[in-house]
Amino acid sequence: MSPVKAVWRYFTDVKWSLRASAILSALTTMSTVALLATSGWLIARASQMPPVLDLSIAIVGVRTFALLRSVTRYSERVVSHNATFASLPRIRIAIFNKLEELTPSGLTQFHRGDLMSRIVADVEGIQDLTLRVYLPIVSSAISAIFCVALVGWILPIAGVILAVALLVAATAVPYLSVASGRVQQVATAKVRSEFNSSLLDYYEGLADITMLDAGNDVFNQLDLTNEEAASIESSFAARTGFAATLIVLIQGLTLTATIYASFKAMQSGTLASVNTVVLGLIPLAVFESVTSLPNAMLSLMRVRGVSERLIDILETPTTSDDNCMQTVTSCDIALDHVSARWPGSERFALADISLSIPHKSTHVLVGQSGSGKSSAIATMTKLLERESGSLIIGDTSIDELAGVEVRSHIVATGHDSHVFSTSISENLRLAGNSGTTEAELWNALEQVELAGWVRSLPIDINTIIGDQGVTMSGGQRQRLILARLFINDPDVWIIDEPTEHLNSELADLVLSRIRRASMKSSLIIATHRLRDTSATDIVTVLDDGNVIESGKQTDLSSSGSYFSENLANELAAHARTTSHE
User: Residues with Cβ < 8 Å from 536, sequence gap 6 or more?
Assistant: First the structure.
């Protein structure tokens, strides 16, 4: 199925509205033709000074067609736009649902700026499929048939001339308009996406760009992309002008041939003189129905380009959870020789690791950045598919559990969790449900030592904190993220770098409260701070996706291995820092 047909399925629910709008659009053109023809007949007949009653029907017809033209034009715009705008949200919802299925491993193939462009600009571009492609083509066909029939009824040879001219204008002109620029027009959406991606990268990396004085390089790249887009738009405008010129030329030739045939028929006595005026005016109006066809074909090429980009998302393969009907009955977690890697990467993020995490235990994963801690968490929460080995939750393989079911019991949070541009209250309620009380929100803030700061704000918990918590410090943002876990209180708490951005005393205090709150659950902590391993049942040391050590902290700290050496160094550094304070 072509991308355009695949996107067209989202307009199925409004097909009758679109058909009605096409008929209304055709009626607008036919009313214009009838108005011009009736006006011409009225003027020509009035010049012969007939009785007034002979003109009464034409006078009423002029008024009727003038009013009908306005009413049908307005009605067509209302019906067609309502139908189109009702369908665009369905496409966006389908894309968001697909992105949720792809999260997070499947999203690595898309740049964030590119995704933004697809969800916003490309979906908006789909409206051209109905408004600038479907409506012009269908309404032009209906009105052209009506006009050819009308002219043929008055003078058959003139009907043949008009039919041939309209056929050429509706086929050859659009073909000539689009043939030379087919590849360029399909690339329009891609160029626009590249520009949006570059612009997003610029704003997100503005601090680094300013520090490195690399602004000119970025702007030069943006200028090149913008010039490419402008070149395509210029080409589009040139072909549109070329098509309009051809249409006017064909219209002129048709008008000349029709007038010539009319005069010949009038001289032979087969055509009334007033009808010669009518036949001369109809081609002036009827070509309005085909003038938009070349532009419609160019718009179709644009729609094809954005459709390919949207279908690229919607048809990205995902691991289906349709047959995963089991439920989590116990939260013991066991990884047995598990290997996994992120899509697009040749390197294994996890290489044949085995872990056993009994329910209500505390397990710490330690290691440097890139050691595999976050990958292990993503695998346990079914956000990263493993390539080999087994992962059992309770007594059920994770393959038999839907991702939503897994993540309803095992909740992971990290220092890079998203903070939304809304209030503190709404950011916390994301972790709860509709019944979460304000008292529970304040209790969570108390647990992470954030309540005092929130109370100092002008509207406390209802304060808007900006995108990614831009109005907060790194430590405040980190504690806000941790507060969500206190509200959710899952069966398994997984925290990635919980002490990031926190000073030693505050980190120890918050971590102790997390341990206390999760006593009836399992607690898994991923950290590079080895001091966080105190009061822990099991410590697992990861390096380059491999388990290099595992055991109780007391055993590992006296083993003379990697863990013990680094723990001793960290404790010594902490002691020196404390003494200076």
Answer: 362, 363, 364, 525, 552, 553
Domain boundaries of the chain, sorted by first residue: 3-314, 333-580
Residues 350, 110: Cα–Cα separation, whole Å: 23
CA distance from start to end of the chain: 70
Q: Beta strand 386-393 with 333-340: parallel, antiparallel or unpaired?
A: antiparallel
The vertex-128 CA angle with 33 and 137, nearest 5°, equals: 35
Q: What is the mean pLDDT of the chain?
A: 82
Decide: residue 379, CB within 10 A, 0-12 exposed, 13-18 middle, 19+ buried.
Answer: buried
Residue 337's region, left for phi above 0, alpha for psi from -120 to 50, else beta, is left
Going from the C-alpha of 559 to that of each of 225, 498, 550, the distances in angstroms are: 58, 26, 11
Mean pLDDT over residues 38-61, rounded? 85
Residue 180 in contact with residue 239, Cβ under 8 Å? Answer: yes
Letter for the amino acid at 309? R
pLDDT, tens only, 188-228 = 656 766 776 777 677 667 766 777 777 777 777 778 877 77
Q: Look at residues 174, 140, 127 and name the one whose alpha carbon lies nearest to residue 28.
A: 140
Position with higher pLDDT, 57 vs 317:
57
The CB-side HSE value for 234 (13 A sphere, CA atoms) comes to 6
* Cα-based distances in Å from 149 to 33, 57, 143, 528: 12, 21, 10, 82
H or E segment and range at residue 122: none
Separation CA 322–CA 404 (nearest Å): 12
> What pLDDT digit, counting tens, does each position of 330-385 carry?
888 888 989 988 877 788 888 889 888 888 888 988 888 888 888 888 888 888 88
Does residue 23 carry a pLDDT above 90?
Answer: yes
DSSP per-residue codes, 478-500: HHHHHHHHHHH--SEEEEESTTT
Which pLDDT value is given to residue 528? 78
Phi, psi of 177 (to 5 degrees): -70, -35
CATH number of the domain located at residue range(s) 3-314 in this protein: 1.20.1560.10
Q: Taking Cα atoms as reference points, which of 117, 88, 113, 118 lies closest to residue 316?
A: 118
Do 496 and 514 meet the contact criterion of CB atoms below 8 Å apart? no
Stated pTM of the model = 0.62
- CA–CA separation, 524 and 385 (whole Å): 20
CATH topology of domain 333-580: Rossmann fold (3.40.50)
Top-confidence range, 158-162, 238-242, 290-294, 467-471: 158-162
